[in-house]
Amino acid sequence: MNVNTLTAPPRSRPAEPVVTLHRPWLMPVLTGGLLLTSLLSVGVGAVAISPAEVLAILGHSLGLTGAVDETKAVILTGIRLPRVCLGLLIGAGLAVAGAAIQGLFRNPLADPGLIGISSGASLAAVGMIVLEVTLFQKLSGLLGFYALSLVAFGGACGTTLLVYRLARVAGRSVVTTMLLAGIAINALAGALTGLLTYLATDDQLRTITFWALGSLGGATWTTVLTILPFTIVVLLGLPRLAKSLNLLALGESQAAMLGVHITGLKRRVIVLATLAVGTSVAVAGIIGFIGLVIPHLIRLVAGSDHRRVLTGSALGGAIVLTAADALARTIVAPAELPIGILTALLGTPVFLWMLIKERSTT
C-alpha cells in the first residue's frame, strides 16, 4: 500500500488569492537542470561514459561524428538512454498529476494515491501474479511481459472510476466524499493485496516485492514508446486547466460564477491524473512521494499560480526521478537499490516538514 495513503485526508482550504512569485529564472534553470541531469545520468554506471563521449555517440547515431567505442555505444543507446527517457516521462507525469490533484483538492498534502490509483494498480498486478486464472494466462500468452502492465493500468482505472462514482451526489462529484471513498477503497485494496501476498509462493513473493518497490530496470524503447502517448496527453492536457484551477482556488461557487464548469474540471483532472499515475505504476511499479513533494517545492518558489506550478512540477519531477535513478544504480553497486525505497527515504523528511508546517499554520 502506498505510504502516502496512510495520512489523514486533506481538508479543502478556504478561499485564497492566487499568488505568483516573479522568478523569471525558474523555468530556464529547471530546463537547464533537466538537460544536465539527463546528460550525467546516461553516463553513470558500471561502465562510465563521459559527457563528451555521450555527445559523440549521439552525434554518431545521427551521422554527425566519426567512429566511437561500439561497446559504450550499445550500452548508451540500448540500456541507459531508454531508462533515462522512461524516468523523465514517469517523473514528469507523476509530478504534474500531483500538482493538479493538489489544485483540485486545494491542499498541498493531497496526492494521487488518495483516490486509489496506486492501490488499484497494485491489487490488480498482485492478483495477476498470484492467481493463476485462465484470463491472466491468456493475457500472458498474448502480451508476454506487458500483460502485467496492462492489468495494473486496468486496475488503476477501475479503482479510480469506482471512487469517482461513489463520490457523485445529485449528479455532481463532491470532493470530500471523493476523499473518504478513496481512503475506504485504499484500505480495502491494501487488505486484499495483503491477503494475496500471504497466499503467494516464494517465487511470487520475490516478483511482488520487486514490483511493489518500484524500478526503472525493465526500461526498453518499447516501454518508452508505450507510455509516451499517454504522458504527452497528460503533459499537454493538465497545463491547459491551469486557469480553471486558479479560479477554483477561490472556492467552487466563486469559480462557477466565473464560468468554470466544475464537474467537467474534476473529471478531466482525475482522468488525466489516472493516465499519468496508472501508466507509471504499470511499467515501473509504485514510486512514491514524487507527486506529493515536487509540486509543493515548486509552489514554494513560484507561488500558487498553476500556470507555473504545473509546468515547473513536470520539469522538477523529471529531474528528481532521473537523478534518483542514477543514485539508485550506483549507491550499492554492483547491486541496484529499488527506486521506490530511495524516493521514500528522500521524500519522507520533506513530507514530515510539510505536515509540521501545516499544523503550525492551522
From TrEMBL:
Similarity-based family: Belongs to the binding-protein-dependent transport system permease family. FecCD subfamily.
Alphabetical list of InterPro entries matching this protein: ABC_BtuC-like, ABC_transptr_permease_BtuC
GO biological process: siderophore-iron import into cell
Keyword Lipoprotein recorded: no
The keyword Cell membrane belongs to this UniProt entry's keyword annotation: yes
Entry GO terms, CC: plasma membrane
PANTHER family in UniProt: ABC TRANSPORTER PERMEASE PROTEIN MJ0876-RELATED, FERRIC ENTEROBACTIN TRANSPORT SYSTEM PERMEASE PROTEIN
Annotated protein name in UniProt: Hemin transport system permease protein hmuU
Localisation per UniProt entry: Cell membrane
Origin organism lineage: Bacteria, Pseudomonadati, Bacteroidota, Cytophagia, Cytophagales
A molecular function GO annotation: transmembrane transporter activity
A Pfam family the protein falls into: FecCD
TM region positions: 25-49, 81-101, 113-131, 143-167, 179-199, 219-238, 269-297, 309-331, 337-356
Keyword terms, alphabetized: Cell membrane, Membrane, Transmembrane, Transmembrane helix, Transport
Membrane topology field: Multi-pass membrane protein
